[in-house]
Model the fold of this input.
Amino acid sequence: MRPLHGRWVYHGGEFVPFSEVHLPPTTQGLHYGTGVFEGIRAYATRDGAQTHLFRVHDHYRRFLRSCRLLRIDPGLTADELADVTAELLRRNGDRGDVYVRPLAYKLGLLPGTPPGVGLGGVSDAVTIVASRLGDYGPPGGVRCLISSWRRPGRATLPVQAKVTGGYVNNALAVEDARAAGYDDAILLNEAGQVAEASTANVFAVRGGRLATPPADADILPGITRDTVLTLAAGLGMPAEESPLHPADLLLADEVFLTGTGIGVTPVIEINGRPVGAGAPGPSTTRLAQLYGRLVRAEREDTHGWLTPVETGSDEQALAEEAVAKA
Ligand SMILES: Cc1ncc(COP(=O)(O)O)c(C=O)c1O
Done:
């Protein structure tokens, strides 16, 4: 991710230079993890002529569901948030690939609210940052460690929502995996079934059939996961949502991860054992290529998943204004 200095940020209902965003140390979301977020990507077409946000409305619908759970009122609809995001990219003069991070959080105690942890009687805030980000993740695939940290059950934490505090679990798991020389962690749920990777859903392929843990396996039901299931259906590739055990991953022909950040990424090794042939397999490669073509508008957008970002003639001037103000 490139530095945000000199870029516009949407904060407190307006577009401001990044350097003007200051959060008080009393911000409740910092203390108690009472915030929600999204990760959204915009992709440039290969000729660089056009940029599209991918499934931005679906991301904001999930964002609003997460907000509702935490009693946060962002004051904007999903369509309005999508418009604000497109305007943010326009102001920043973004023509290349961009990663958008909307964050809604509990800010400060309203008069009469006693200090302490809680949701009611606390003001809300929304901040959206966007930074240039190209493809990331090792192109040849990732190596994963099955974590000793379990993903909490939804009776403990609402894991279907993207709640900031819950990501302590993901951070601990990925830290251990990296310390052991792996790229990412795969977490099991409290029943010992495969849940997901640190910020991605997991698919296994066996005999050309796809399988991915169901929503009730305490996963975050990813938008990329849904995209891949839709693409697979279009290809006539059999796919099912069914519980997976760690051994199913070790016995699979192919395993891959799906997420907004990493797209469709092959897993080539788990716990020191090669997955299948230890190289990206044919189903993964096909789906990854298809996904790449879809997000870069090289396929017909039959689902209305691409939102063009209109870059007006004044975007360069606006970008320079942000730098000047920074
Ligand atoms: C815990 C977790 N699981 C799965 C995903 C994948 O979700 P999506 O495809 O919507 O990005 C993410 C990323 O948002 C995540 O943070």
